[in-house]
Amino acid sequence: MQSLNHDFIKTRRQSLDISLQEMAEKLGFKNASTYLKYENGSYAFKADQLPVLSKVLKCKISDFFKQKIAKTAI
Fold it and tell me: How much of the chain exceeds pLDDT 70, in percent?
């Protein structure tokens, strides 16, 4: 199972100059502090929120996931 790259989400939001409150509204949250809990990883984004997040952040859903690179034995 892949894990979300919360740092990417935060950095991308900041680079697009989108406030926490704007993100909260786009995802249907009542306030910025609720969204912040998702962005920090305290709460888990739900699968149906990822397409919205992708659209707002102008990136692919796959960009949200950390790539795991396996070490190979030599």
Answer: 89
